[in-house]
Amino acid sequence: MKKKRNNSTRGHKSPKSFPQATGIARMSRDGFIFVEIEGQDDDVYVKSTRTRNALNGDTVRVAIYKEKARDRRREGEVVEIVERSKKPFVGVLHFVGAQAWVLMQSRTMPYDIAIDQQQALEIGGKSGMKAAVVVDRWEKNEINPWGHVTDVLGYPGENDTEMHAILAEFGLPYRFEKEVEDAADSISEAITAEDLKGRKDFRDTFTFTIDPADAKDFDDALSFKTLKNGNYEVGVHIADVSYYVKPGSAVDKEAQIRGTSVYLVDRTVPMLPEKLCNKLCSLRPDEDKLTFSTVFEINAKAEVVKQWIGRTIIRSNARLNYEQAQDIITGAPAAKEFSEELNNAINILNGIASILRENKFKNGAIRFERPEMKVEIDENGKPTGVHQAISNESHWLIEEFMLLANRTVAEFIATDGKMNMMTSKKAKTFIYRVHAEPNTEKIQGLRDFAGNFGYKLGETGSGKEISKSLAELFDKAKDKPEFGALEMLALRSMAKATYTTDNIGHYGLAFKYYTHFTSPIRRYPDTMVHRLLTLYLDGKESQNKDYYEQQAKHASEREIIAAEAERASIKYKVVEFMQDKLGQEFDGMISGLTEWGMYVEIEPTKIEGMVPLRTIKSDFFEFDEDHYRLVGKRSRKVFRLGDPVRIKVKATNLEQKLLDYELVEKIK
Fold this sequence. Notes:
- A hairpin with a 5-residue loop joins β1 and β2.
- It contains 14 helices and 31 strands.
- The two termini are 48 Å apart.
- The relative contact order is 0.08.
- α10 (440-451) packs antiparallel against α12.
- The longest helix is centred in the C-terminal third of the chain and has 34 residues, at 545-578.
- The model is unreliable at 2-10 (pLDDT under 50).
- 28% of the residues lie in helices and 28% in strands.
């Protein structure tokens, strides 16, 4: 079993005499931790001998006795474990006689966990199986932490086992309790006269959905009608989840806890039970559906003449996937399979969406074009390919009308219904989707980095200046080897979008008002927005701000966890995909640099792996942080972000989701 060295404190001075802060411990495979402190960009490094038995995810109080210097980070030691993390660790059960452990092969947990063998056996555990375990205690005099098994996941290497392991690692559920399923199943599918009270009827208006080919839940639809004055009526219709899911119900409580659906490579872990997300609230064609809508009168210049927000009933006439919609837009032969009415609607809406999109960028929205990679799998979950996900006009069409709906709803509430005016001092409590301006230090880092390639970043004194300067930088670097590196650093300079009741606008989209209204099947904040909107349309008073701020914070946290789990599933499948490519060579581009190695994305899949510096035999390379490059001590050879290189696939580690490359040569 792996053992931990004894902790020690600084002998010459008490930790109490140093400034202290509380944060979250992030542990490395080697046992040291970084303490992340909310509101601070710089974390605190803690040696493995000064962690006081803190583990990954624990909330700790740390004494900071070395502040950040030019060439090193802040350093300190843990003085108290405020709260143990409730998130499980995932490892392999190991029984020896009457003793039992969960053996770890994790990048964030270097210590094996002792468990009660009988407890593990009672829930179906067998030696060699993967299990999720929560740490209960780790006293000073104990060699290993002690915990209890929360779930037995199956045998290593099986697809379901590994996907469940990822969900367990992030504390995400992979099934609904029977009580929740039964509550969802008991909701009536019949639409009565009572359900139609106060709703506008759009069942006779031409309506359609556009979604991915493999989608099962359709939570948004567009309706289209040409008006007598030559303008167009466009409806953005969203599944009326809040009408069916009542506050405080079993389904609502579970959705609130989950916060969002989670999309792993091979499955969706839905926020709502199947009865709701795939049936009752899915806007399937030729079925009457209850919806919450924003309806616009728009002219050919994409100017909104008037708008209306309220509850509706629709009946979708057609279900398209993005590829089919793109065929209509490009006039491909396959477009003839669809009605003239559908062809006409999509082409007119695409024209309007194109103007909305261009106006968005003219107003300062940031245009990032970094490709998203998609892993293809077979029926057994085995990865068969990796390719770039294509985003084109059919995606932008839907995106622009969803953005319009989200922006309109937020502006309606923020201005107390007086659209396009200053924010009302009496604006009611609401959930906004906000995005702060970039970090100035990180923008300066981008300026310095761009200078290494001969680029001069323009003015960055304000948010608008930053977006204008970034657009100019991207235009100059387009199609150059360093473009990807510049875009990546620009992305890293951006703040994370979050939910809050305090509106500061959405910097990345260049919107003064923005919310999430269009996906209540998969995002709980959208359900809350629907509820607040209903109350305010009915003339109710502003709701409790503290309560909704707490809910917004929880939703932001759940969103981050879901994104991390999704990335973990992609990393696992990518490493699995590369297992049979050991020894093969690929061209690639340097995508990241650190003091311990260079990260390389290979072509054409963009799969990223690391070349450890210790494996480069030709020279000893040092990381020049000021110029963000690696420099050979003897040869003075330089590696920079964006440089083309050739690599050989050296090693894969499925358990830790790691991929190691070996440098073959630098391409001149």
